[in-house]
Amino acid sequence: MKLLNVDTSDKVRKKIDESFTDSYDRWEQIPIGQSLGRIAFEDVLSPIELPQFSRSVVDGYAVLSRDTYGAGESMPVFLDVSGHVEMGKAAEGKVSAGEAIYVPTGAMIPEGADAVVMIEYVENLDESTVAVYTPVAPGQGIIQKGDDVELDSKVLSKGEKIKSRDIGVLSALGIEYIKVFKKLRLSVISTGDEIVDSFGEVQYGQIRDINTHLISAMAEESGAEISLKLLVPDDFSKLREAIGQALKMSDIVVLSGGSSVGAKDMTAKAIESIEGGQVFVHGVAVKPGKPTIIGRAGGKALFGLPGHPSSAMVIYKVFVDHLIRKYYYMSEDTVYIQASCGENIHSAPGKETYQPVELIERDGEYEAAPIYGKSAAITTVARSMGYIRISENKEGVKKGEKVRVALF
Ligand SMILES: Nc1nc2c(c(=O)[nH]1)N[C@H]1C(S)=C(S)[C@@H](COP(=O)(O)OP(=O)(O)OC[C@H]3O[C@@H](n4cnc5c(N)ncnc54)[C@H](O)[C@@H]3O)O[C@H]1N2
Ligand code: MOO
C-alpha cells in the first residue's frame, strides 16, 4: 500500500525556504512609466529634498508671523505690500518687519517670511497696503524645504511592488529609470488523458483545460511571466520530456494533475527521473491539496499541484506564491479582512483546512460565507474571494465566530 507521508504547511514552507537558498538577482532597468506592478530590485533613496524650496500652500501674503500677533477682526494690523512672487520663478525681494509679499499657492516663500496669511483674512486698502485680520503662527501656510522628502531618505524598499502612488513620488524626485527584478519565468504543464485544449473540439468524457489558464493568470498576478504552457497526456515519457523542456526555459515549473497515488499519477516519478531531479515533499497535511508535490532539479523549483482546480488554486497561493515572494524579497502582503463566519464550518482535525469563502457586506460588516462544492467545481474558484485558514488543532469554526479572511 502506498501512503503519502504528509508534512504540515509550515514545515513545507520551511523546506521551500531551505531548498531554494540561491538569491534571485536578475534585474533590468526600466522607465518608471512601465514599472507599475513590478518589484523594486533595490532600495531607492531620494537624490534631492522635496520640496526643493519652501512653498506656500495657500494664496496669501508672506509675512513675519510676529507682525500679526494681536491682529483680530476689530483690530487689524497694517502691512506694506513690497511685491509679489510669480509662479515658477525664484522669489525676489525680502520680507522685512511691517511688510508683506503676495504669494500664490505653490509659489516660493520669499526670504524673511515665516508664515502666509490667506487672502480671505486680508483686505487690500490700496496698491501698497493691506489690513490683516488674523494672527498666524510661524510656519503656517508653508510647506518647508525638505518637509515632504528628506535627502537620501528611502522612498521605495527592495522587494516592494510598485504602485501608482510610488510612480507619483518617483516623478516628483525626477527619477526616470528604476531597477526592477527581471520577471521570474514560470511554466505550467497540465497533465491528464481527459484534459483537452479549452478552445478546441471536446469529446464526450473529455474535460476542457482550466488549470493552465488559471495558474498562468495567478502567476502573472504574483509578478512572474509565463514562458511555456503545455498540455500532456498521462504518458511517462511525454511528461518527462515536457518537464525537461520547461526546465530549460523557466525558473519554476508548475505541474497540475497526476499528483496523487493512482496508477496514472506519475508526476513525482517523472520529476525524479530528470537528471538531478528530487522530490522533497509529497503530501501535505492540508485540505484541499493533500497530494501536493514539491521538488527541484538543478536549483529550479518544481511544484505538482493537485488537479482539482480549487485545490490547485489554494496550493498555488500557499506554496508557489510563497516561493515567488521569497525570490523577490517581498514581505508577506496578504490582505486580510475581518469577518464573522456565516455558518458552522467543519474541518478535519490534524489537517490544516483552507476554506474558500465569499464575502458579503451587511451594514458595513463582512460575513464570510463558505463556498462548498467539490474541489473539482470551477464555480468554487470563481466565487471565492479569499479563504479562511483553520488550524490543524481546531475542529472547525462556529457560526458568528470572528475570522480572518485572506484575500486571493
Ligand atoms: N486513493 C486516493 N485518491 C485520491 C487521493 C488520495 O489521497 N488517495 N487524493 C485525492 C485528492 S485530495 C485530490 S486533490 C486528487 C488529486 O489528484 P491528482 O493531482 O492526481 O489530479 P488528477 O487525478 O489528474 O485530477 C483530479 C481532477 O481534476 C481534474 N483536472 C485535472 N487537471 C485539470 C485541468 N488542467 N483543468 C481542469 N480540470 C483538471 C481532473 O479531470 C480530475 O477530475 O486526488 C484524489 N484522489
Ligand atoms: O486536494 Mo484534494 O480533494 O484535497 O482537492
TrEMBL record:
May be involved in the biosynthesis of molybdopterin. Catalyzes the insertion of molybdate into adenylated molybdopterin with the concomitant release of AMP. Keywords: Magnesium, Metal-binding, Molybdenum, Molybdenum cofactor biosynthesis, Transferase. It is an enzyme of class 2 (transferase). This is Molybdopterin molybdenumtransferase. PANTHER family: GEPHYRIN, MOLYBDOPTERIN BIOSYNTHESIS PROTEIN. Gene3D superfamilies: MoaB/Mog-like domain, MoeA, C-terminal, domain IV, Molybdopterin biosynthesis moea protein, domain 2, Molybdopterin biosynthesis moea protein, domain 3. It catalyses: adenylyl-molybdopterin + molybdate = Mo-molybdopterin + AMP + H(+). Pathway: Cofactor biosynthesis; molybdopterin biosynthesis. Its cofactor is Mg(2+). Residues 187-326 form the MoaB/Mog domain. Its EC number is 2.10.1.1. It comes from the Bacteria. The lineage of its organism: Bacteria, Bacillati, Bacillota, Clostridia, Lutisporales. Belongs to the MoeA family. CDD domains: MoeA. Pfam families: MoCF_biosynth, MoeA_C, MoeA_N.
